[in-house]
Specification:
CATH class: Alpha Beta
Oligomer: single chain
Bound molecules: 6-phosphogluconic acid
Number of domains: 1
Shape: globular
Largest sheet: 6 strands, parallel
CATH topology: Rossmann fold
Structural class: alpha/beta
Distance between the termini: 16 Å
Strand order of the largest sheet: 1-9-8-5-2-3
Helix content: 25-40%
Strand content: 15-25%
C-alpha cells in the first residue's frame, strides 16, 4: 500500500509524521512485542525527532521496546557536526533517555567496509526492520544511495560502504534489500528544492539509476510519502 500525505508546512509535516510514527510503533509493539526503526539523517527529520521527544508524544510509546538503527551515516566520528547519529542523539535519543544498548550506531571509527560488515551482522540479528524513515535529496538519492553508485545494485547485503564520487568519500548505508524488507517505509520530504526530485520519482519515467528513490518498493510493507506543499508542488496527479 502506498499513501501520500501533503501538509502545509514543515511544522504540520513533522506533527503528521510523529503521529504516524507513534501509530506504527504502538501497532508493532502490540503485534510483535518490539519495534525496530531505522532513523533518517539530514535536516528534515529534526522536527519529527524533537516532537517525539516532547511532552506531546514521548509518553505515547513504550520506548523500552524500541531498537534504533540508522538508515545511513556519514564517514565521520560520532561526535562530528554532520553525524546523523549525533543529530538523532541530541534531538531524540538523549531526551528520551534511550539505553545505549538499544541504539545501533554505525561504528564509523572502523574502516568503512568493516563498519558495514559490523552493521550487517546487527541488522541480520534484528531481522526485518519494522519502520525505515527516509529523506530525499534534490538528486533523488535516499539514505546514502546516490545516483549512479555501486550500492544501487546490491542484491544480497543489507549494509554497505558506498563510494560516492561527488562527495569524494564513502557513505555507510542500508541497501534496497534492507529497506524493502521493512514492514513500513516513511519518506519525509520538505522544501521547494525537492519538488523536481519528488515529481521525477513519483510521476516520472522509470530511471532508477538516476532516481534511486524509485527503487524503494517494500516487498510486503506499506510506503508512506509525507510532503509539505512546497516539496509536492511539482506533482500533477491526484
Ligand atoms: C543524509 C540522509 C540523506 C537525507 C537527504 C535529505 O545522511 O543526509 O540520510 O539521505 O535524508 O539528503 O536531506 P535533508 O533532509 O537535509 O534535505
Amino acid at each position: 500500500m502506498r499513501k501520500v500525505l501533503i501538509k502545509n508546512n514543515l511544522d504540520e509535516l513533522g506533527d503528521a509524521a510523529a503521529g504516524l510514527f507513534v501509530a506504527i510503533a504502538i501497532e508493532s509493539i502490540a503485534m510483535r512485542g518490539k519495534f525496530s526503526v531505522a532513523l533518517a539523517g539530514g535536516a528534515t527529520p529534526r522536527a519529527l525527532y524533537s516532537l517525539l521527544g516532547s511532552d506531546k508524544y514521548k509518553k505515547k510509546v513504550n520506548w523500552s521496546k524500541v531498537t534504533f538503527f540508522f538508515g545511513d551515516e556519514r564517514n565521520v566520528p560520532a561526535d562530528a557536526d554532520d553525524s546523523n547519529y549525533r543529530m538523532a542523539n541530541e534531538t531524540l535519543l538523549a531526551p528520551l533517555g534511550i539505553n545505549a544498548k538499544k541504539v545501533h550506531r554505525w561504528k564509523t571509527e572502523l574502516e568503512p567496509t568493516e563498519a558495514a560488515a559490523d552493521y550487517e551482522t546487527r541488522l541480520r540479528a534484528n531481522g526485518p526492520l519494522d519502520l525505515v524513515l527516509l529523506g530525499l535529496g534534490s538528486d533523488a538519492h535516499t539514505a546514502s544511495l546516490f545516483p549512479q553508485t555501486k550500492a544501487l545494485n546490491e542484491k544480497e547485503k543489507l549494509a554497505v560502504a558506498n563510494w560516492v564520487e561527488k562527495l569524494d568519500d564513502h557513505r555507510l548505508t542500508l541497501t534496497f534489500p534492507a529497506i524493502n524488507a521493512a514492514q513500513d517505509v516513511m519518506f519525509l520530504v520538505s522544501g521547494k528544492e525537492k519538488a523536481d526530485a519528488v515529481a521525477g520519482v513519483l510521476e516520472g519515467e522509470s530511471r532508477p539509476d538516476d532516481l534511486p528513490a524509485q527503487r524503494v518498493k517494500p516487498t510486503s510493507g506499506n510506503l508512506f510519502w509525507l510532503f509539505d506543499v512546497a516539496a509536492a508542488s511539482g506533482l500533477k496527479g491526484p
